[in-house]
Amino acid sequence: MEWWTVIELWVIAVLACVGIPLVWLYARRRWLSRSGGTFDCALRPSGGNKPWQLGAARYQGEYLEWFRIFSLGLSPRFRMRRSTMHVLESREAEPADELYGDERVLEVEFGTAKGERQVEVAMDHESATGLLSWIEAAPPSIDRFPDT
């Protein structure tokens, strides 16, 4: 086998190893946004000093689904039912949050099979307004304001 043939095979292999995941990430993002209602949204668990994870959220019926941006999986990392979601706090992003611009941070509590869970989500102001409206627009049969 000629040496340039070996080099060509290595170049093709490297391009395939880099190109295929990039094409998959692009196709996955297109798949996520095909039904509409998708927006950029960073997330981190509340009460800790964990870093923000970049992601995208989408409205899917009565659920808000959150997907990591740099993931090859098709299933959401978090799936929050609207009837169990409560916004505990809403604030402007601070420099300590190390986010990328003028964003709004919402501390959200939602129910899971294992109990209540709290996360912080960061998004632009328009998306935050849309999310708050979506949560508050739950059907009247759902008790949005439980007694405290």
Which descriptors would you attach to this protein?
alpha+beta, 148 residues, DUF2550, 2 helices, 4-stranded antiparallel sheet, 8 strands, 29% helix, PH-domain like, 2 domains
Choose one word for the global shape: elongated
Assign a percent range to the helix content: 25-40%
Mean pLDDT: 85
Structural class of the secondary elements?
alpha+beta
What is the number of helices? 2
Total strands = 8
Please tell me the total number of domains: 2
Instruction: Tell me the major beta sheet.
Output: 4 strands, antiparallel
Runs in which pLDDT lies below 50 for 5 or more consecutive residues are none
CATH architecture of the largest domain: Roll
How would you name the CATH homologous superfamily of the largest domain? Answer: Pleckstrin-homology domain (PH domain)/Phosphotyrosine-binding domain (PTB)
**Overall CATH class of the largest domain:** Mainly Beta
Gap from first CA to last CA: 77 Å
The side-by-side strand order for the widest beta sheet comes to 1-3-4-5
Q: In sequence order, what are the helices and strands, one letter per element?
A: HEEEEEEEEH
CATH topology of the largest domain: PH-domain like
Binned strand content:
25-35%
Radius of gyration: 20 Å
InterPro entries: DUF2550 (IPR019675)
Keywords: Membrane, Transmembrane, Transmembrane helix
